[in-house]
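FORM 7B: Structural annotation worksheet

SECTION A. Query
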Amino acid sequence: MTKAPGKTAPPKPPTDADSQAEGFRKARVARRMELIEDYVELVADCMDAHGEARQVDIARRLGVAQPTVAKMIKRLDEEGLVSRRPYRGVFLTEAGKRIAEDSRRRHQIVERFLLALGVGEEVARTDAEGIEHHVSAETLKAFERFVRDA
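SECTION B. Predicted structure
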């Protein structure tokens, strides 16, 4: 059986238990990082708009309760990604800024790729929000090439 020009064979499922386990491990790591990336990206957005990020604004934008935000901000502070100032808001550290910038960049590439495929703007923006956290560097580069060459 011959392939049509430009067509590739469908990927084969992993038969090796180790490679399958590695795929699941990478997905778990990406899910753990997803929440961190969402928070630091949102803190960056608030800082850009208002000079600081207040917990009430973060809670409203994420659609969660303020105690949920407080718990996550504490975790981000412990991990050195944000700093908190009494009677002020939350601010990104240099490490937090790097994560936010990388997350924004991935989101923009994925969104442009989806738009290039013909996906509508609202759907592309929403889908990119999930995909950006799970896309590998190799796939992201392929998305960039596709958009650039389209």
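SECTION C. Observations
The longest strand covers residues 82-84. The chain has six helices and two strands.

SECTION D. Sign-off
Analyst initials: ____
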